[in-house]
Write a structure and sequence with these properties.
alpha+beta, single chain, about 290 residues, about 35% helix, 9 helices
Length: about 290
């Protein structure tokens, strides 16, 4: 298995996720994980795939060093409605974990539970993810209290024109996007030379908004890997040449991802983040992304 063949495999499946890419496995291997690439076929046709990350953990004391398995945003299935395929893939992932001596197997696939805003009458549920959750529960799986990825995802249809996208926004949002441009906010694409500055801004954001982030080495490894692979661009909002906000835009398999964002208190009244988000939408469309 190599990078090109893995890309071809998961790109043949619906909704190949950035966190199932070869590059994500390469980054995680720099921080104590081992990447395994599993493929399921029906004849010559790929029906499922999974990047399985493995690491050894030390529980302390006289406890042995144990392995754990994690499949970020996976496994990927051609059809989540196919109950037999779901069972086959999950059973074989469990067998593989046991064969490697893993004490834990964790998955968080994008198997759809529903659409709409959670806890409102707007929700349409009963999708394949509901059956998956029921099957996992019946087979002894437990919902983890330590969620790594977000449980809900907001998507935007980028196949629409810029005019249609703007028209669908609230009037105040459109106003703020245009206000930022009139007041001198500009947005540029960054380079590797901006990474240190963007990390410092990310630290400032985390302290202000009260969330925990990883060490600098982790983010630099992610940013360098995907930038070198042509799957990432940092966007930087500036006022008179001074950076005031940043947005890290990743793209893979026709989908653009907003994974990290950072901003300063400086010039917030000029609404730089509104223009930054709008330019991210425009950049994603330029990269050929449809979501």
């Amino acid at each position: 298995m190599n990078k090109k063949s893995w890309h071809n495999i998961i790109s043949s499946l619906p909704n190949p996720h950035l966190l199932q890419s070869w590059e994500w496995g390469e980054v995680k291997e720099q921080f104590g994980w081992t990447a395994h690439h599993k493929v399921w076929q029906d004849g010559d046709r790929v029906v499922a795939a999974a990047l399985v990350l493995e690491r050894t953990v030390n529980l302390g004391g006289i406890s042995p060093r144990l392995r754990m398995h994690y499949t970020p945003k996976g496994p990927l299935l051609r059809d989540w409605e196919d109950a037999a395929l779901r069972k086959r893939v999950l059973d074989e992932l469990e067998v593989f974990a046991r064969s490697r001596g893993a004490f834990l197997l964790k998955i968080d696939p994008d198997a759809q539970l529903g659409v709409g805003e959670p806890s409102t009458s707007d929700v349409d549920d009963g999708f394949a993810g509901t059956a998956l959750v029921s099957e996992l529960t019946q087979n002894g799986w437990r919902f983890s209290g330590e969620q790594v990825q977000f449980r809900n995802t907001v998507t935007l249809d980028l196949s629409k024109s810029e005019e249609e996208l703007l028209a669908a926004m609230k009037q105040k949002t459109r106003y703020n996007v245009r206000l930022a441009g009139r007041k001198g906010v500009s947005v540029r694409s960054g380079t590797v030379d901006d990474f240190e500055m963007l990390f410092r801004m990310y630290v400032e954001t985390a302290v202000r908004d009260g969330f925990t982030i990883r060490g600098k080495e982790y983010y630099l490894a992610v940013w360098h890997s995907f930038f070198d692979g042509g799957m990432f661009v940092p966007l930087i909002a500036e006022v008179e040449g001074e950076p005031v906000a940043g947005l890290m835009l990743f793209y893979y398999g026709g989908t653009a991802y907003y994974l990290y964002g950072m901003s300063r208190d400086l010039h917030r009244k000029l609404m730089p983040t509104y223009l930054l988000q709008w330019e991210a939408i425009r950049t994603a469309r330029e990269k050929g992304c449809t979501i």
